[in-house]
Amino acid sequence: MDKERFFSFCYDVITRHIGFPDVAKTYNDLQEGAKYQNDYYNDPIGFVLERDRIISYIINVRNGNVIDAIKDDRNYLLFLPVPSGRRLGDLTNEELFVELTQEIRRLTVKGAHQAIKHYYPDVPDNDLTAELLDQGEETLRKYGLIG
């Protein structure tokens, strides 16, 4: 099985199982795919276990519908949002820009929320989120994240 067919197969398996045809591939994803092919090509049980692990991971990440750049022990994975029912390749540059801009704002709020909760675990989640969305920079100053 050549690499192109293998990547196409993996993409089909993932999208068929999770219903999100918009998982973006990065250069690192392709490198990981090559490693995956070498490690699991002749091991059907390992292939199924790894496939299920990937599917489960993507479902969990995509439930929040945010760009999520995570670091695991092997590489960085980046998931991009697109409007429901459309593939990443169907979007124009302008549409993707709008989607990314919205998601980057959400990711920024999420990151600030996590940082504040790390230092102030007793702050109620909903109140903190509302405060960040409403006051933004003032909230970051209040909790000492910026000067």
Features:
147 residues, mainly alpha, 2 domains, two-stranded antiparallel ribbon, 63% helix, flat
Order of helices and strands: HHHEEHHH
Radius of gyration: 19 Å
Helix share, percent: 55-70%
In terms of structural class, how would the helical and strand content be classed?
mainly alpha
| Contiguous runs where pLDDT drops below 50 for at least 5 residues | 17-28, 64-78
Strand residue percentage: under 5%
User: Please, what is the average pLDDT?
Assistant: 63
* End-to-end CA span: 56 Å
The helix count comes to 6
Output the strand order for the largest sheet. Answer: 1-2
Beta strand count: 2
Outline the secondary-structure elements.
Elements: H1 3-18, H2 27-40, H3 44-62, E1 70-71, E2 76-77, H4 93-119, H5 125-135, H6 137-142
Can you put this structure into words, describing what you see?
The chain has 147 residues and is mostly helical. It has two domains: 1-81, no CATH class; 92-147, no CATH class. The protein contains six helices and two strands; from the N terminus they run H-H-H-E-E-H-H-H. The protein has helices at residues 3-18, 27-40, 44-62, 93-119, 125-135, 137-142; strands at 70-71, 76-77. It has a two-stranded antiparallel ribbon. The longest helix has 27 residues, at 93-119. The protein is flat and about 55 Å long. The protein starts with a helix and ends in a 5-residue tail after the last helix. Residues 17-28 and 64-78 have low confidence and may be disordered.
